[in-house]
Design a protein that fits this description.
This protein has 162 residues and is an alpha/beta fold. The protein has helices at 26-29, 32-40, 56-69, 113-122, and strands spanning 9-14, 17-23, 45-49, 72-76, 88-90, 96-99. Helices cover 23% and strands 19% of the residues.
Length: 162
């Protein structure tokens, strides 16, 4: 596997009209910047293939990605015994539309795109009141020693190579 070079969106033509869709993998879900970049690129819906156990904190984290970016999110996960299922979807208000159990199955969520777009017009979240001129430190890759990590090959992890 090779890591991607960024995040992109595309337009999905639906019966209800075009929807701008983005994607991020399970590790991207762990970081708020991934979903934020997709939102800045206009994603109204983010799809996330997942391959790890989902506990309450990770499900809440995913819900918050929907809420803080005023977009719908959907995540498909492996069922037991590989992972623990819990494929899920949340609307732009963080309301759970579906959550699977640990068994294999087909789970459907219906997103109200008009409601997502309406929330984007009225919320203080998303890109409404961001202050990017204050976020300069997020662009620097220096790390304090406490955040240094070793990768799977026993080498120092270098974020710039990922």
């Amino acid at each position: 596997m090779t890591p991607g070079e960024g995040f992109s969106t595309g337009v999905l033509d639906t019966r209800g009209g075009p929807v701008r869709v983005g994607a991020m993998i399970c590790f991207d879900r762990e970081h708020p910047e991934s979903a934020r970049i997709l939102m800045l690129q206009g994603a109204e819906l983010v799809l996330t293939p997942n391959a790890c156990r989902l506990d309450t904190m990770r499900l809440d984290q995913f819900k918050v990605r929907a809420w803080e970016n005023a977009m719908g999110v959907a995540m498909a996960n492996y069922p037991a015994p590989v992972c623990n299922g819990c494929s899920t979807a949340y609307d732009a208000n963080g309301t759970c539309l579906v959550i699977a159990d640990e068994k294999e199955g087909l789970f459907m969520a219906s997103f109200d795109m008009d409601a997502i777009r309406e929330r984007r017009l009225k919320t203080i979240h998303g890109n409404a009141y961001r202050r990017p001129h204050r976020y300069g430190p997020l662009l620097h890759s220096e790390q304090d020693d406490i955040w240094q990590r070793i990768d799977g090959n026993g080498q120092p992890y270098k974020p710039s190579t990922r």
